[in-house]
Write a structure and sequence with these properties.
Layout lengths: L3 H12 L13 H10 L6 H21 L4 E5 L7 H8 L3 E6 L2 H14 L4 E2 L2 E2 L17 E5 L9 H15 L4 E7 L4 H8 L5 H16 L9 E8 L4 E8 L3 E5 L2 E5 L4 E8 L3 H10 L3 E7 L5 E7 L1
Parallel strand pairs: 1-2, 1-5, 2-3, 2-4, 5-6
Antiparallel strand pairs: 6-13, 7-8, 8-11, 9-10, 12-13
The chain binds N,N,N-trimethyl-histidine.
Organism: Sphingomonas jatrophae
Keywords: Methyltransferase, Transferase
GO molecular function: methyltransferase activity
């Protein structure tokens, strides 16, 4: 139940000044369910826009990337997006990679049913380092797929490291299709991360519930409020859990205090201008080839080659 890495990140994160816990710990079962609900919210445009881009431009993507590659997806195959790509690209094999085995096996099984002839080869692994792909795809050219603007959780240095690791995993001659959210007005961004129904608030606060569930902790969850902020200098949305009063609590035998108005920084979601997106890819060892965006330029799908 207790992942030692979760425990270490939470304890170190709460000691840090200002306190900060990495966003990857949002995704326990409950957190994954809440994230799925976020993707359906009227305010949360990224999933809708990216899915529509894949549906509309799938044939153009297949034209540019070539058909019959092995598609390697980084992060648990999201139910709605992947079929559009698979239908268009008609891959020789599909390898979804995720650290969370449960989710991975469920979505791989569902895709296997929808694409009967396709070799679906799920890989439970940490894709932040170069890893060995299944032997079945050894001789196939690869198309990496990294949707959702998940890269936005990382600062520039970590994003470059990840892109380089992906280049290492995918090998020579590979291509990468990556989704990147655009910089846009805070009037659109803030509601996308602070929705009227409170689902994003529940998603953020679930991190505290998870700490209480898994780390022998007594964090008073109702003393914290969800906050989404636009950090213009860093071009990112930040999520915080802000203390509404002075709080004291224990996690795994260690005592912590947070003063009223102080908080825990729980997520960065970087947004990219067109030039910044291309620069980041180049720094990570990829050459942008083509990109597709919606009419309002809210979200971009970029195809790059190694
Ligand atoms: C899964 C990291 C792409 O940053 O938009 C959604 C996570 N956090 N609402 C994002 C998230 C709050 C999401 N990513």
């Amino acid at each position: 139940m207790t992942d030692p890495a979760f425990r270490a990140d939470v304890l170190a994160g709460l000691r840090a000044d200002p306190p900060a816990i990495p966003a990857r710990w949002f995704y326990d079962r409950r957190g994954s369910e809440l994230f799925e609900r976020i993707t359906d919210l009227p305010e949360y445009y990224p999933t809708r826009v990216e899915t529509a881009l894949l549906a509309e431009y799938g044939p153009a993507i297949a034209e540019a990337a070539g058909r019959g590659r092995a598609v390697i997806e980084f992060g648990s195959g999201s139910s709605a997006k992947t079929p559009h790509l698979l239908r268009a690209v008609a891959p020789a094999a599909y390898v979804p990679i995720d650290i969370s085995g449960d989710f991975l096996r469920d979505s791989a099984a569902a895709l296997g049913r929808d694409f009967p002839g396709l070799a679906v080869l799920p890989l439970e692994a940490d894709f932040t380092r170069p890893l060995a792909l299944p032997a079945e795809v050894a001789d196939l050219p690869r198309l990496g797929f990294f949707p959702g603007s998940t890269i936005g959780n990382l600062d520039a240095a970590a994003a470059v490291d990840l892109l380089r690791a992906m280049a290492g995993t995918l090998g020579d001659g590979a291509m990468l299709l990556i989704g990147m959210d655009r910089v846009k007005s805070p009037a659109i961004l803030i509601p996308a991360y602070d929705d009227a129904a409170g689902v994003t608030a529940a998603f953020n606060l679930n991190l505290l519930h998870r700490i209480n569930r898994e780390l022998e902790a007594d964090v008073p969850v109702d003393a914290f409020a969800h906050e989404a902020r636009w950090n213009d200098a860093a071009a990112r949305i930040e999520m915080h859990l802000v203390a509404r009063r002075d709080v004291a609590f224990t996690v795994a035998g260690q005592d912590f205090r947070i003063a009223e108005g102080g908080g825990i920084h729980t997520e960065n979601s970087h947004k990219y201008g067109a030039r910044d997106a291309r620069l980041l890819l180049r720094a990570g060892g990829w050459t942008p080839v083509t990109e597709w965006t919606d009419a309002a330029d809210q979200f971009a799908l970029i195809l790059a080659e190694a």
